[in-house]
Write a structure and sequence with these properties.
The structure holds 2 protein chains of 2 kinds.
Chain A (H helix, E strand, L loop, with lengths): L8 H4 L2 H23 L11 H25 L8 H18 L13 H5 L15 H25 L4 H20 L11 E2 L3 E2 L2 E2 L3 H27 L1 H11 L1 H6 L4 H27 L1 E2 L6 H14 L5 H20 L4 H15 L3 H12 L1
Antiparallel strand pairs in A: 1-4, 2-3
Helix pairs in contact in A: 2-8, 3-8, 3-11, 3-12, 3-13, 4-6, 4-11, 6-11, 8-9, 8-11, 9-11, 12-13, 12-15, 13-15
Chain B lengths: L2 H8 L2 H6 L9 H10 L14 H8 L4 E12 L2 E12 L3 E5 L6 H8 L7 E5 L12 H6 L2 E4 L11 H8 L6 H5 L5 H13 L15 H14 L4 E5 L7 H14 L4 E5 L3 H7 L2 E6 L2 E6 L1 H5 L2 H8 L5
Classes of the chains: A mainly alpha, B alpha/beta.
Chain lengths: 366, 310
């Protein structure tokens, strides 16, 4: 029996795992674009544009699910406010897209339409620099990260845990939602930011632009997965699990739980910001509705359904729940919320380790 | 006067001359200096550094490794520990005994930073910091390690991973992210696993170990931290006779190199391992000395042991 932890690439996955990951990456990065762009629309295997956009959205949700799995599944901290980090990333990207509309808006002004509507004469100071894509991207990662760091620092230092922590994350997202709903805050009030035209000069309505955004999302998900996988298989990941399982013991072994929690928590928020920034150009709108407490709860449900502490399961859960949502909100719109609720109850009662856990158990039995 | 009470009277001498409570532990000029230095945790108004003169007076030339100096703590008016002074010497195996509520576990809590005392200080002779002002992990990093009453290992991790986590060395996030076991560290893990008899179970999840094995794993984890002082709380609770014997062997083999403090109720076990015994009663040291003198001390017999066996 080999007990020493593996190192290098073999620590992340064994050969079969790498193979599976490679096949999945190839399928999503090559097959979908080819079937969309190269296959004529009349063909039965053609992937229509709306599906590319839908898959692109799912990939972003996958990143969010990984971020939540890192902090919930591996560190044992349930956040019911990750929607706020996702939305902040989205807003940063939205601000860039808003400014790149230029004078093509309804009011033919260099200012975003909603500012003209509010009779503002010039860009507020916190919008400056957002006409630069790299500034917007850095802000999309930095703003959620800084908010999470400040919030987490005080919460973890005060040793707030468990359900109390989850509740104040709900309060956090709710408070920011109320703030963003106000016109005076300067982010377009309840309409949010929308009517985007182009990203870095490329028309957002072109199918090829959509495919590129889809590909970027896929690469973002792959990167996030490998990063999370690296962390959870490193010693830091073992420390996170140790803190999750027996925090006081971890402390007496010499680890400072606050810094470890803060690391996982902040990174998780940054990843959500990345997901939001990739998401907004694909859906064409960001508004305070993204910060609804219910949205954040649903994000946690994805991970619960897929299986906590498995990474792959979390992505699967995000795809599964959102796939079902797309199907059922079209097929029987009234039933969807009941279905989502019963899904969550069913998983917590019968599959506490989610789909991934159930699959694992079946595998071990056979 | 029996020998035991003579010993217990000898050690706390300095405090009677030093006056009430912990105030003289620190000189006034040091207090302001330390308060300026301490950027973090500014809410703590208690002194952070130990007066060397006071320290030397308490240690009095003994080869001390850890000093609990005149410590008191009360919980909601209940005095758990009152003016308790305890000096641990290098390499000794000390047993702490006493009836329930005598303050044994509270004392452990104070030394390891879990409980902050109302007054008094805890320090090591070559370090001017007051341990009661440090956090749990800072104290652990100084080489003062503790085994809890109930075995608390990381149940979801393998035995080997438990050892890896316990290993001494930098414990920061950045370090852990890029950490790789060196050949030397692997050797020392294997050596400790050998010592506690778990080398064949290295790849087993700690949660699946038998009760006694968990206790040994926890002791092994303490050893991997390369501690100077090992605090062991009721190590043989729930152990079979055989496991108890092995544990006694293990603890005896550890003393000498390290200082081992064992809290235990089982007098047979105490007799089989102890070099020195400290009896606590109502938060105070009732007697201190070798096992025979303690057992024959009339006060100890009265409050704790009952009639000595013949």
């Amino acid at each position: 029996m080999k007990a020493e932890p593996a190192v290098g690439l073999s620590a992340l996955h064994d050969k079969r795992g790498w193979l599976a990951l490679g096949v999945l990456t190839l399928l999503s990065c090559v097959l979908v674009p080819v079937l969309n762009l190269a296959v004529p629309a009349s063909s039965p295997i053609h992937v229509p544009d709306y599906l590319v956009a839908l898959f692109g959205k799912f990939l972003c949700y996958g990143i969010v699910a990984l971020a939540i799995d890192l902090i919930w599944g591996f560190t044992g901290i349930l956040s019911l406010g990750h929607g706020v980090f996702f939305a902040l990333g989205g807003y940063a990207m939205g601000m860039y897209l808003m400014l790149s509309i230029g004078a093509q808006g309804v009011y033919k002004s260099a200012l975003p339409d909603f500012m003209v509507f509010l009779d503002w004469k010039e860009l507020p100071w916190f919008w400056r620099g957002f006409d630069n894509l790299s500034v917007a991207l850095i802000a999309a990662l930095l703003v959620p990260g800084l908010l999470a760091f400040a919030f987490g620092y005080f919460a973890f230092r005060s040793r707030i845990r468990g359900v109390y922590f989850s509740l104040i994350t709900q309060a956090l997202t709710f408070a920011l939602m109320l703030l963003f709903f106000r016109n005076e805050t300067g982010f377009g009030g309840n309409n949010g930011l929308t009517d985007f035209k182009s990203l870095y000069g490329y028309d957002l309505h072109e199918p090829s632009t959509k495919v590129v955004l889809y590909l970027l999302s896929a690469l973002g998900l792959l990167f996030t997965y490998l990063l999370c996988r690296y962390i959870v298989t490193s010693k830091a990941g073992r420390v996170l699990r140790a803190i999750r399982d027996a925090e006081s013991r971890a402390m007496f072994v010499g680890f400072n739980p606050i810094s470890y929690k803060l690391f996982a928590w902040t990174l998780s928020a940054v990843l959500c910001g990345l997901a939001g920034a990739l998401y907004v150009p694909q859906v064409g709108i960001i508004n305070p509705g993204e910060m609804l407490p219910a949205n954040s709860i649903e994000m946690a449900i994805w991970v619960a359904v897929g299986g906590r502490g498995t990474l792959f399961g979390a992505i699967g859960g995000a795809f599964l729940v959102n796939g079902m949502r797309s199907f059922f909100t079209a097929a029987m719109p009234n039933a969807w919320l009941y279905l989502l609720g019963s899904l969550f109850i069913g998983v917590t009662l019968f599959f506490r380790d989610g789909v991934a856990g159930a699959v694992g158990r079946i595998k071990r039995k056979s | 006067m029996s020998e035991a009470s003579a010993v217990s009277n000898a050690s706390p001498k300095p405090e009677s001359s030093a006056g009430p409570k912990s105030e003289p532990v620190l000189r006034a000029d040091q207090r302001t200096k330390s308060a300026e230095k301490s950027g973090k945790r500014s809410w703590s108004m208690r002194p952070r550094l130990i007066d060397p003169a006071r320290r030397d007076a308490v240690v009095a030339g003994r080869p001390a490794v850890l000093v609990v100096d005149n410590v008191s703590v009360s919980f909601d008016g209940f005095k758990a520990i009152t003016d308790l002074t305890l000096i641990l010497e290098r390499g000794e195996l000390r047993c702490l005994i006493g009836p329930n509520g005598a303050g044994k576990t509270t004392l452990m809590d104070i030394i390891t930073g879990k409980t902050k005392p109302d007054s008094g200080a805890v320090y090591m002779p070559h370090d001017s910091r007051d341990l009661t002002q440090l956090t749990e992990y800072e104290i652990a990093a100084l080489g003062i390690c503790r085994k809890f009453q109930r075995p608390t290992v990381f149940a979801g991790h393998t035995v080997y991973e438990n050892m890896e986590l316990a290993l001494s060395g930098p414990k920061g996030v950045w370090n852990s992210l890029f950490f790789r076991l060196s050949a030397e560290q692997k050797r020392s893990i294997e050596q400790v696993l050998e010592q506690v008899g778990l080398h064949e179970h290295a790849a087993v999840r700690a949660g699946q170990l038998a009760h006694g094995q968990k206790q040994w794993l926890e002791i092994g984890m303490l050893l991997a931290q390369d501690p100077r002082v090992l605090l062991v709380d009721e190590p043989i609770a729930g152990m079979t006779h055989q496991e108890t014997e092995r544990t006694a062997e293990l603890l005896k083999s550890l003393a000498g190199e390290r200082t081992v403090v064992v809290v235990e109720h089982d007098m047979d076990f105490v007799r089989s391992i102890a070099q020195r015994v400290t009896v606590l009663h109502e938060g105070k040291v009732l007697a201190e000395g070798d096992i025979d003198s303690v057992q024959n001390n009339p006060r100890v017999v009265e409050v704790y042991l009952g009639e000595p066996r013949t």
